[in-house]
Specification:
Blueprint lengths: L1 E7 L17 H20 L4 E7 L17 E4 L5 H14 L4 E5 L8 H10 L5 E5 L5 E6 L17 H11 L4 E3 L9 H13 L7 H9 L9 H12 L11 E5 L15 E3 L9 E7 L2 E9 L4 E8 L6 E8 L16 E9 L8 H14 L6 E8 L7 E4 L2 E11 L8 E6 H9 L6 E9 L6 E12 L13
Parallel strand pairs: 1-2, 1-4, 2-3, 5-7, 15-17
Antiparallel strand pairs: 4-6, 5-6, 8-20, 9-12, 10-11, 11-20, 12-19, 13-18, 13-20, 14-15, 14-19, 16-17
Helix pairs in contact: 1-6, 5-7
Length: about 475
């Protein structure tokens, strides 16, 4: 019995095909990935006398690949700490179920056809192993006649050396590989351009992917029409397509998927703690009706979580997010150190640049770097849910005038409701600091009650930076 195993991930926005964002949004990239995986399944099922299994990434939990087909495929979870262990386990699983030949493929090579798969099985009649090299230096297919776990050991996965290192390993093991034609994956904007060109000039195949491309083309980017070649060329040359079109103008900070770090924080977020404050706010991911968001719980405590960001406020001036609180803080006062607590705040920190600093600033920041190993932020904007400040009011933080507190929500009127917010950080910074803002260093989420001794709970979701709908001339300049 011949068997094809397809490796897939759950099509969760922000977790798949992230290198396509921009020019695509997280949701568009996830929809494209889902369509590519379905086309891979269709190609595999077109190979005669072959059984098809799906090996799915078990994260997020409880999301099995039933989305791939109306008639549920046979599937099993991937196992192992890296790709090599997962491939080895999948091969062993297939052989232990009675397969005599096993071909393992990914789910994002749209030009992989039933003919390629059939040829791979034919090559296994004459070779120990079959490889399908990819343009990025990896491989899109591996075929085996028996379990050979050594093939997957000590390979530098996710690097351009995967294919060459695998060939070296095969030579060391005295195994003769059969090679298929080189094909491409869809990982970057350049790959997307090639896919669009291929789809425009070939009417067959891409049963599920083609409608997604057509749907994307209904937007102002017109992916399906001639402008895509020019726009993608601009992106590849200047990495700026997202500043030109609605499809790619948003830079998602996080919409949260359920993926976490080992310490339980959302994936790619870090703790920000204060040595003199022993009690820390608890941050966790919460799921409600399939939507994940961050929950912050503070009781006489203070800490934050941050995500490093490399973006210019000139290109991405619009900060957008949604949040909710369970109560306002009665004792808080944004003008006093004793009241410097907030039920919720979004903290935007701006990068310190020694080239634009005075001699005194360079000395001060140099001392800080020697103590902490890195430069502290040059300045910060805090968008707060306050208890008494009028909405839109801005005050200096009571500890430093390099941090400005801006009331976006105030009072109990909207407690318990999700509120969607938008602020122009470029305009806010220039208005409050009297200068153009430097690049963003990080964005942090924070709920703190260490000064007032109260308790508070807050929720955060869908954080992004975007170009404005009606771009200000200064914000359109490319530095």
């Amino acid at each position: 019995m011949n068997k094809i195993v397809i490796f897939v991930k759950a099509p969760v926005p922000g977790q798949v095909k992230t290198r396509l964002c921009p020019p695509l949004s997280n949701r568009e990239a996830a929809a494209l990935y889902k369509a590519l995986a379905k086309d891979a399944l269709s190609a595999a099922r077109s190979v005669p006398l072959t059984q098809v299994d799906v090996a799915y990434d078990p994260w997020p939990p409880h999301i099995e690949p039933v989305w791939m087909s109306d008639d549920r495929p046979d599937f099993f979870p991937q196992q192992g700490s890296d790709l090599g262990e997962r491939l080895s386990h999948a091969a062993q699983h297939a052989f232990s179920s009675g397969a005599s030949k096993v071909v393992i493929i990914g789910s994002d090579s749209p030009r992989l056809s039933a003919d390629h798969l059939t040829h791979a099985f034919e090559l296994l009649d004459r070779h120990d192993i079959v490889l399908g090299p990819a343009h990025d230096g990896g491989y899109y297919l591996i075929g085996l006649c028996r379990p050979v776990p050594e093939v997957f050991e000590n390979i530098p996965w996710s690097t351009p050396r995967v294919f060459e290192e695998t060939l070296s390993r095969l030579r060391f093991l005295n195994l003769e590989p059969g090679l298929l034609n080189k094909l491409g994956d869809i990982d970057t904007a350049e790959d997307l351009k090639r896919l669009l060109d291929f789809a425009r000039h070939h009417n067959g195949g891409l049963i599920h992917t083609r409608p997604i491309l057509e749907a994307l083309g209904k937007g102002s980017l017109k992916l399906w029409g001639a402008p895509i070649a020019l726009l993608l060329a601009v992106f590849l040359a200047a990495q700026a397509i997202f500043a030109l079109t609605p499809l790619g103008r948003t830079l998602s900070i996080d919409s949260f998927s359920g993926a976490t770090e080992p310490d339980g924080l959302p994936k790619n977020w870090k703790p920000l703690v204060f040595k003199k404050i022993p009690r820390r706010t608890a941050y966790s991911l919460v799921e409600e009706n399939g939507d994940y968001f961050v929950m912050a719980q503070s009781s006489f405590s203070a800490s934050a979580i941050l995500k490093e960001v490399q973006a210019s406020p000139k290109d991405y001036p619009m900060l957008r997010w949604r949040w909710k609180i369970e109560r306002v803080l009665e004792k808080a006062d944004a003008r006093k150190k004793s009241g410097d607590d907030y039920a919720a705040r979004i903290y935007v920190a701006f990068r310190y640049d020694p080239k634009n600093a005075s001699a005194w600033q360079r000395a001060k920041y140099g001392v800080a770097k020697s103590l902490y190993g890195h430069y502290p932020p040059h300045a910060a904007l805090n968008y707060i849910w306050d208890n008494k400040l009028p909405i839109g009011a801005a005050v200096d933080n009571p500890y430093t005038n390099r941090t400005k507190m801006i009331a976006v929500e105030s009072g109990p009127e909207n407690v318990g409701k999700w509120r969607t917010e938008e602020r122009n950080i470029y305009d806010d910074y220039k208005r409050l600091f009297g200068e153009d803002p430097p690049d963003i260093a990080f964005i942090a989420l924070m709920t703190d009650t260490d000064n007032t001794g109260e308790t508070a709970s807050a929720y955060f979701d869908d954080i992004s930076l975007a170009a404005p709908d009606n771009a200000h001339e200064k914000q359109k300049e490319i530095p």
